[in-house]
């Protein structure tokens, strides 16, 4: 919401958007990356996202991989309402198994775990079932793919067809005969699957009909516009930075949008790499012109951690102390700005 109370135009309101529901795979972020390489905008949300709370409708949904097994007691499962969205769905690895679990379960531990390259044989269905072949349209009949799974389908779910197999996976690719639901056991999002990008394009563009209008330039312009609308002409924003890609990009966007009304804070907790704090300050302050404050809290952190061996206690000490230091610095920044053009409370937190 903007400072004047009006709703801000979110990116998913500007661009056709594919929703990626993340089940915790190490590859999940690559799905959004590959889609954006295709100029298709995507947003990744936790797999537990309640569809009723989603204020927008995606053009399609991708269910990611996961380190879990769908049949485990505490395994994550998608909100069943995702199947009431009336949009195409693609399940990848665990996502395929989640798709099958919703349509009759029939997932079990594989006798042979599969990790690495595999040859995928694509099955065509000429005639009345030809629509199930759309995921592999324009793809060769045999391709190399990347597998990383320990579970498999025990049998084909009702109303599904087999669209791909490997020597170890008889259900390496499945498609619903009546609805635009597809599942692949392999990871189409990794570069180890050379034709994976084409498969994702077939889903997002060919099946979901998402327009390829997203570009980084358009996204940056829209985000700067959105930040200014949210923060307003006098709003102050504070945000923690680490020097990593994510926080640096976010800080640069804030700098471009509102200048020195964005206050970046780097907390040195005493366990950073040698000279890392100085290097981050050099990059952000001098290189990018970001309004950065470096807080040397190393002695405070290390004194609190002295003699503590339990990992969980360490985690809590570091987390709580970081919040305390950050809040203290926010008050100091606000106080120091008194009487200046940047005077005012810090109302926004960059996350």
From TrEMBL:
<keyword id="KW-0658">Purine biosynthesis</keyword>
<dbReference type="InterPro" id="IPR014729">
    <property type="entry name" value="Rossmann-like_a/b/a_fold"/>
</dbReference>
<dbReference type="InterPro" id="IPR004739">
    <property type="entry name" value="GMP_synth_GATase"/>
</dbReference>
<dbReference type="InterPro" id="IPR017926">
    <property type="entry name" value="GATASE"/>
</dbReference>
<protein>
    <submittedName>
        <fullName>GMP synthase subunit B</fullName>
    </submittedName>
</protein>
<feature type="binding site">
    <location>
        <begin position="242"/>
        <end position="248"/>
    </location>
    <ligand>
        <name>ATP</name>
    </ligand>
</feature>
<dbReference type="InterPro" id="IPR029062">
    <property type="entry name" value="Class_I_gatase-like"/>
</dbReference>
<dbReference type="GO" id="GO:0003921">
    <property type="term" value="F:GMP synthase activity"/>
</dbReference>
<keyword id="KW-0315">Glutamine amidotransferase</keyword>
<dbReference type="InterPro" id="IPR022310">
    <property type="entry name" value="NAD/GMP_synthase"/>
</dbReference>
<keyword id="KW-0332">GMP biosynthesis</keyword>
<keyword id="KW-0436">Ligase</keyword>
<dbReference type="InterPro" id="IPR025777">
    <property type="entry name" value="GMPS_ATP_PPase_dom"/>
</dbReference>
<dbReference type="GO" id="GO:0005829">
    <property type="term" value="C:cytosol"/>
</dbReference>
<feature type="domain" description="GMPS ATP-PPase">
    <location>
        <begin position="214"/>
        <end position="351"/>
    </location>
</feature>
<keyword id="KW-0547">Nucleotide-binding</keyword>
<keyword id="KW-0067">ATP-binding</keyword>
<dbReference type="GO" id="GO:0005524">
    <property type="term" value="F:ATP binding"/>
</dbReference>
<dbReference type="Pfam" id="PF00117">
    <property type="entry name" value="GATase"/>
</dbReference>
<dbReference type="Pfam" id="PF02540">
    <property type="entry name" value="NAD_synthase"/>
</dbReference>
């Amino acid at each position: 919401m903007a400072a004047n109370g009006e709703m801000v135009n979110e990116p998913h309101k500007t661009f056709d958007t594919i929703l990626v529901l993340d089940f915790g795979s190490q590859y999940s972020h690559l799905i959004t990356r590959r889609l954006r390489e295709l100029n298709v905008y995507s947003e990744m949300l936790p797999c537990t996202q309640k569809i009723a709370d989603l204020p927008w409708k995606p053009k399609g949904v991708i269910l990611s991989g996961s380190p879990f097994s769908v049949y485990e007691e505490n395994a994550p499962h998608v909100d069943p309402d995702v199947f009431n969205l009336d949009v195409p769905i693609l399940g990848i690895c665990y996502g395929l198994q989640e798709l099958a679990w919703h349509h009759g379960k029939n997932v079990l531990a594989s006798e042979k775990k599969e990790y690495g390259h595999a040859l995928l044989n694509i099955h065509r269905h000429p005639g009345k079932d030809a629509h199930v072949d759309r995921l592999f349209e324009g793809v060769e009949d045999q391709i190399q793919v990347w597998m990383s799974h320990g579970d498999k389908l025990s049998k084909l779910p009702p109303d599904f067809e087999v669209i791909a197999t490997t020597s170890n996976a008889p259900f390496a690719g499945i498609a619903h005969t009546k609805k635009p639901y597809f599942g692949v056991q392999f990871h189409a999002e990794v570069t180890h699957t050379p034709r994976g990008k084409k498969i994702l394009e077939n889903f997002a563009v060919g099946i979901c009909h998402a327009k390829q209008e997203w570009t980084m330039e358009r996204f940056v312009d829209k985000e700067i516009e959105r930040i200014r609308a949210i923060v307003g002409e006098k709003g102050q924003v504070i945000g923690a930075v680490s020097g990593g890609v994510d926080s640096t990009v976010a800080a640069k966007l804030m700098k471009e949008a509102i200048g020195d009304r964005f206050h970046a804070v780097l907390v040195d907790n005493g366990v950073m790499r040698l000279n890392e704090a100085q290097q981050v300050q050099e990059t952000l302050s001098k290189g990018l012109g970001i309004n950065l404050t470096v807080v040397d809290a190393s002695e405070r952190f290390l004194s609190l951690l002295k003699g503590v061996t339990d990992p969980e206690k360490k985690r809590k000490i570091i987390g709580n102390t970081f919040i305390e230091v950050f809040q203290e610095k926010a008050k100091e920044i606000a106080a120091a700005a008194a009487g200046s053009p940047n005077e005012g409370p810090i109302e926004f937190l960059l996350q």
